[in-house]
Specification:
Structural class of chain C: alpha+beta
Strand order of the largest sheet of chain C: 16-15-21-20-19-17-18
Strand content of chain A: 5-15%
Largest sheet of chain C: 7 strands, mixed
CATH topology of the largest domain in chain A: Rossmann fold
Number of strands of chain A: 13
Structural class of chain A: alpha/beta
CATH class of the largest domain in chain A: Alpha Beta
Largest interface: A-B, 62 and 48 residues
Oligomer: heterotrimer
Radius of gyration of chain C: 28 Å
CATH superfamily of the largest domain in chain A: NADH-ubiquinone oxidoreductase 51kDa subunit
Helix content of chain C: 10-25%
CATH architecture of the largest domain in chain C: 3-Layer(aba) Sandwich
Chains: A alpha/beta, B alpha+beta, C alpha+beta
Strand content of chain C: 15-25%
Largest sheet of chain A: 5 strands, mixed
Bound molecules: flavin mononucleotide, iron/sulfur cluster, FE2/S2 (inorganic) cluster
Shape of chain A: globular
Number of helices of chain C: 16
Number of domains of chain A: 3
CATH architecture of the largest domain in chain A: 3-Layer(aba) Sandwich
CATH class of the largest domain in chain C: Alpha Beta
CATH topology of the largest domain in chain C: Rossmann fold
Chain lengths: 455, 169, 568
């Protein structure tokens, strides 16, 4: 069944004997595309990326070519490229595979991207919890330098480019691109207000800067190889190329799987690719794009009209796996992290777990997210520890409604969307929690001893 | 000042290597914090001031970071730091139990040290290995599928002083 | 219309009110110009924009343009259509562009304001009755205007440090802090003393000084002024007086020739504090801590309160004035030592008196020290330029009165009128002092007053009206904040009284003094005391005064004139 997979980025990863050293990479044709790219004009490469339609894989799905076109070249300031390897959206673990197992693919992709946007200095911002990953990348960079694929006057072309690895230290907010930039500048990673601080004009050191995800930058390598037009033929329009989906939670074969855009449905992924649920369990809910995305209930129906004007009426299993396919559900495919929950999951506890994450990771800069995220966490913690009140159900919604759209960065949405969606879609469970607890029907130990503790 | 710090020669060398990588010195503060912590186990007040001076910053500029990032520590911790992922995918697979097992094994409170100060067990947020949940990091090494039984095994190895390499990724 | 063109004003709309502002104007300021307050905490006109409190969220509308042609899209009535952006925008980071609109009272704006207020209050102690910010607290104010008025928060509030001494003059209550970062930005951007910062994160974020360091720079109290809540308080003013009892008087700081604009707060004749008053051309919204202490001179122990004649205190000030005048009559060889701390009006009358008495020498005591580059200039006299314009002196003063010393030694001077200046501090030796008859007019006892034949008690800057000319040649006025403590008369009356003894009748009323000055001094032509705006009036001094080599270096809104390139 994995036949349906189309591995471009993951092509060599996990193949027997494929190491993360440069010799292996060269044996597999490594850096050939870089050599060819160096013969082309940067603007041509930017045009290829634009034509490819490739959308960012870090979360927001913004077309990379368009983002690059916003770069303020006229300022005369140096341009920087930053690879976002902070991978910290819960449920996401694709960048780890690339970094640990095929680092040269990322470096080649970065070099091509840097050349395309005329950046002579690039950074890989890697989360602190990947210490080995940082070492692997450092070594890979040294190997590439020793072959003059990077450094000064690369392969005699006159183009020079350095890449440095910069380690984070345990903060999800460093994945938000302007928080990342502040962190890289040595400050508290407080995301910047936009306007005026759009990275393409006022990014790192107030210079034009592009921040792209690991997977996005790897894709650039393949776009350079096959040409934007050819790349755009992979997948569906608006969802070109492949995507790596990370599946975790209650499936039999969790893991990472790469597919062309729109190649299969969520149901096929869960049941065919990931082996379905554990025996005797039923599907209860799916988070389709990292834990900040709105949750989907197993028996929901998604109705609407697509771009061609056709009406659709999908069950959860029918959702098509790509950006637009998931978006019809009212949720988003985000970072590609799919978390599956079966019928043993207590939704109040699950939400309490998720909310604890966002409260812990809120940088604390702006009021709605700082205070709202902790308030939500406190309510949910209380609810899952034997003191739920009926009025909490509406209170949760009302508090969450006061956050999104009103914060400096999208962590506000990330803190609010789960609460809004869990409460809306599993309202009965939240009410039942309060009613049972009011009736004294709680388990000892705050009511969590006989179920898997989530919070 | 370098004497006060008693940093290893390699650390000092790396520090000097890393600073010129950045167009602006201040950017080197996080790398320096990592290097100093790797060398000394934590970032002391002296180290904070030393780094500030090294980079032309004020101590508060460094202190603000030490106290922002969970991986940086302003107080000594156990020789072994055990970090159990508590986030959703791991929790669904029983990481709370894993954490309790480890805490019991070392007799330490959550986010606290074992009585002899040798081991610290704490929760971490999603370690980006959700498909091999529950996961645990022992210092730099990732351990996957750490159920109760495996947790006990890991604890035993640590207690017997024979740290086992975890399979990374 | 012409005027608008000159300043390139554009039209923006706040709650449908039209207002014309320069392009790029912050929309909080544009709204204020339209008479509408956008509630805000973190925004401060003199600091960088942080955009963190989110209190200033408004609805934002852009004039619609055709994408292809760039031409305005019009509605049926021919007005340009407005595209309202569904997401609220923060007004403090929105700049005025032609035709943009904000709504500050729409349902969305209201809901945002209420939401932020509720969030700010969930972890706030809300113990206004015992908080010394009460009455001046933006949180307390907005809580009634924009809050929901009841609490839905039943969880435990965060616990943070209370009553931390940040430095000798500033106290911090972290539980009241709303993390707006104004104080941090002030220390970084204005005071250039990076000691404050935030530790921990999320809702547990806490304002702190680096352990072992203190917020002790000479501008620390500005953080108290700009803290929108009661998190930062002054150790001096704490709990002394509820702000709503205080009377406020505009004044000028006498610390240096910067002429910082101030507000003196008093109650029942007692001054409780001095705070900065905004003047965008002089001190913005800041002032030094040291200047805030100066009111203490009013009640200083060595304050001169009574006239003294031949070592005997007397209640008869008129008699003492007569005694003084008598000492100046006859074959006297007199020197007049004036003060750069006196007002323009006093200097004018003092000069007049010197002329009447046939003074052989007039001098001023110079006070030059290092400037701090911000709001304390090198010239520690607030009004040397006043003495120049009134003609009391023609050159810049020296710290040491060496001409006077010489003259006393050569017995060319036998009588000295010292106006609020201590001659011994200005270099006159004991022996020299012993050789002359001294008349002293001043506010405090000193060596000179102790040796004076006649001592006349004068008023401090807080006890009278007057004006100073600062380093920019800006004429600035100060008003009487408290009744004079000194017996009888204030300075102008003393000087007018002495002049009367010489048969010269002048009115001591400030308007009358100005009427005469504006007639006789070209620089003051057409100026009257009442005509001086509260932010001062820039004078155009004669070129020989402009070209003097003043001691001041650069400070906040002052750059010294460039010296002519020297010929090599
Ligand atoms: C709170 C938050 C966390 C984020 N974390 C990550 C991350 O870990 N990795 C990532 O690539 N993008 C992350 N993003 C998205 C980045 O801000 C940015 O959009 C992305 O790096 C752009 O790369 P792309 O265009 O290639 O997707 C995060 C965004 C937010 C708001
Ligand atoms: S939304 Fe949250 S994480 Fe983002 S800047 Fe505001 S407080 Fe920080
Ligand atoms: S800071 Fe303001 S709202 Fe808070 S207790 Fe003081 S007066 Fe009340
Ligand atoms: S102490 Fe006051 S000024 Fe400083 S951050 Fe807190 S609320 Fe703002
Ligand atoms: S949830 Fe534990 S690794 Fe992602
Ligand atoms: S005033 Fe604080 S966000 Fe605008």
């Amino acid at each position: 069944m994995s036949a349906k997979e189309r591995r471009i980025i993951l092509k060599n990863i996990d193949q027997h004997g494929y190491g993360n050293d440069i010799d292996t990479y060269l044996e597999h044709g490594g850096y050939e595309i870089w050599k060819k790219a160096l013969q082309r004009k940067p603007e041509e490469l930017r045009e290829e990326v634009k034509r490819s339609g490739v959308r960012g894989r870090g979360g927001a799905g913004f077309p990379a070519g368009m983002k690059w076109s916003f770069l303020d070249f006229k300022s005369g300031k140096p341009v920087y490229l930053v690879c976002n390897a902070d991978e910290s959206e819960p449920g996401t673990f694709k960048d780890r595979q690339i970094i640990y197992k095929d680092p040269h693919q990322l470096i080649e992709g970065m070099l091509i991207s840097a050349y395309a946007i005329t950046a002579k200095l690039a950074f890989i911002y890697i989360r602190g919890e990947f210490p080995d990953g940082a070492r692997i990348l450092e070594r890979a960079i040294e190997e590439a330098r020793s072959k003059n694929f990077l450094g000064k006057d690369i392969l005699g072309t006159g183009f020079s480019c350095e890449i440095h690895v910069h380690r984070g230290a345990g903060a999800y907010i460093c994945g938000e691109e302007t928080g990342l930039i502040e962190s890289l500048e040595g400050k508290r990673p407080y995301p910047r207000i936009k306007p005026p601080y759009f990275p393409a004009a006022l990014g790192l050191y107030m210079c034009p800067t592009i921040v792209n995800n690991v997977e996005t930058l790897c894709n650039v390598k393949h776009i350079a190889e096959m040409g934007g037009e050819e790349y755009a033929k992979i997948g569906r329009p608006g969802n070109t190329g492949t995507r790596i989906w990370c599946v975790s939670g209650h499936v039999r074969k969790p893991g990472y799987y790469e597919f062309e855009g729109g190649a299969l449905t969520l149901g096929e992924l869960i049941y065919d690719i990931c082996g379905g649920l554990h025996p005797g369990r039923k599907l209860k809910a799916v988070i389709p794009g990292g834990s900040s995305m709105k949750i989907l209930r197993a028996d929901e129906r998604f109705k609407g009209t697509d771009r061609e004007g056709n009406n659709f009426d999908f069950a959860l299993e029918d959702l098509i796996l790509d950006f637009d396919g998931i978006a019809v559900s009212g949720s988003l495919s985000g970072s590609g992290g799919i978390i599956v929950m079966d019928d043993t999951t207590d939704m109040v506890d699950a939400l309490a777990n998720v909310s604890a994450f966002y409260a812990h990771e809120s940088c604390g800069q702006c009021t709605p997210c700082r205070e709202g995220s902790l308030w939500l966490k406190k309510i949910l913690h209380r609810m899952s520890h034997g003191q739920a009140r009926l009025e909490d159900v509406d209170l949760l919604k009302s508090v969450a409604d006061q956050i999104p759209g009103r914060t400096i960065c999208a962590l506000g949405e990330a803190a609010a969307w789960p609460v809004q969606s869990y409460v809306a879609k599993f309202r009965d469970e939240f009410i039942a929690k309060a009613e049972n607890q009011a009736a004294g029907r709680t388990n000892g130990d705050g009511g969590i001893s006989d179920r898997v503790q989530l919070v | 000042m370098e004497d006060v710090m008693n940093l290893k020669k390699e650390t000092l060398q790396k520090i000097d290597e890393v600073i010129p990588r950045y167009p602006e010195k201040r950017s080197a503060v996080l790398p320096l914090l990592h290097l100093v912590q790797e060398d000394q186990g934590f970032v002391s007040r002296d180290a904070t001031e030393w780094i500030a001076e090294k980079l032309g910053l004020k101590p508060i500029n460094v202190w603000e970071l030490v106290r922002f990032y969970p991986m940086l520590r302003d107080k000594p911790v156990g020789k072994k730091v055990v970090r159990v992922c508590r986030t959703l995918s791991c929790a669904l697979q029983g990481s709370y139990k894993t954490c309790k097992t480890l805490r019991d094994a070392f007799d330490c409170k959550l986010d606290g040290n074992s009585p002899d100060g040798a081991v610290t067990v704490e929760f971490a947020e999603c370690l980006a290995s959700c498909h091999t949940a529950p996961v645990v990091m022992v210092d730099d090494d990732l351990h996957e599928h750490v159920d109760e039984e495996k947790a006990k095994k890991i604890a035993g190895e640590i207690l017997n002083g024979q740290p086992k390499q975890g399979g990374s990724a | 219309m012409n005027d608008d063109k000159k300043q390139e004003l554009i039209t923006v709309y706040v709650d449908d009110r039209e207002v014309r502002v320069p392009p790029g104007t912050n929309m909080i300021e544009a709204a204020a110009k339209a008479g509408i307050e956008v509630p805000h905490y973190c925004y401060h006109p003199k600091l960088s924009v942080a955009g963190n409190c989110r209190m200033c969220m408004v609805e934002l509308g852009m004039p619609e343009k055709d994408r292809a042609t760039g031409k305005p899209v019009l509605d049926n009535e021919g007005n340009q259509k407005v595209m309202w952006i569904p997401k609220p925008a923060i007004a403090c980071a929105t700049k005025a562009m032609p035709g943009i609109r904000i709504k500050t009272k729409s349902d969305l704006a209201r809901s945002c304001q209420e939401g932020v207020m509720e969030f700010l209050l969930v972890n706030h102690p809300l113990d206004c009755p015992i908080c010394d910010q009460a009455g001046e607290c933006r949180l307390q104010e907005f809580a009634t205007d924009y809050g929901r008025g009841y609490s839905r928060f039943v969880e435990e509030k965060n616990v943070k440090p209370k009553r931390t001494l940040l430095g000798p003059r500033v106290m911090l209550d972290d539980e009241r802090c709303i993390l707006c970062s104004r104080c941090v930005r002030f220390c970084q951007e204005i005071a250039d003393d990076d000691v404050l910062g935030f530790v921990d994160r999320g809702s547990y974020t806490t304002l702190t000084c680096y352990p072992g360091k203190q917020l002790e720079n000479n501008y620390s109290l500005n953080t108290v002024d700009i803290c929108p809540v009661g998190a930062l308080t002054s150790t001096d003013f704490r709990f002394k007086m509820r702000p709503w009892f205080l009377r406020e008087t505009h004044s000028i700081c006498t610390e240096s020739s910067v002429g910082v604009n101030t507000v003196v707060s008093s109650r029942e004749g007692k001054i409780h504090r001095i705070t900065p008053r905004r003047n965008d051309e002089v001190n913005d919204t800041w002032m030094a801590d040291s200047g805030r202490e100066l009111y203490k001179q009013v009640e200083a122990k060595h304050r001169l309160l009574k006239a003294v004649v031949d070592s005997f205190e007397t209640d008869n000030v008129g008699g003492a004035i007569r005694e003084a005048a008598d000492l100046l009559k006859g074959e006297r060889k007199i020197a007049f030592v004036g003060s750069g701390r006196s007002s323009v009006e006093e200097q004018f009358l003092f000069k007049k008196l010197a002329d009447q008495a046939g003074a052989r020498l007039t001098a001023l005591v110079g006070r030059v020290a290092e400037g701090d580059g911000l709001l304390i200039s090198a010239d520690r006299n607030p009004n040397v330029r006043g003495a120049l314009v009134t003609g009391l002196i023609n050159e810049l003063p020296e710290a040491e009165l060496s001409d006077l010393e010489d003259a006393i030694d050569k017995e060319e001077i036998d009588t000295v009128v010292a106006y609020n200046e201590d001659l011994s501090a200005a270099g006159i030796s004991e022996q020299q002092l012993a050789k002359v008859t001294i008349i002293y007019v001043g506010t405090h006892f000193n060596e000179t007053s102790a040796r004076a034949r006649v001592v006349l008690p004068a008023s401090t800057v807080f006890e009278k009206n007057g004006s100073f000319i600062n380093q920019q040649y800006r004429l600035q006025k100060f008003l009487q904040a408290v009744p004079g403590r000194a017996e009888g008369q204030d300075d102008r009356r003393i000087l007018a009284g002495m002049l009367a003894e010489f048969g010269v009748l002048v009115s001591p009323e400030i308007d009358d003094v100005w009427a005469e000055m504006s007639e006789t001094i070209e620089t003051f032509r057409d100026i009257g005391f009442m005509k001086i705006p509260s932010t001062g009036l820039l004078l155009d001094p004669p070129s020989h005064l402009r070209d003097l080599r003043y001691p001041e270096g650069g400070s906040l809104h002052y750059e010294p004139a460039k010296e002519e390139a020297s010929v090599t």
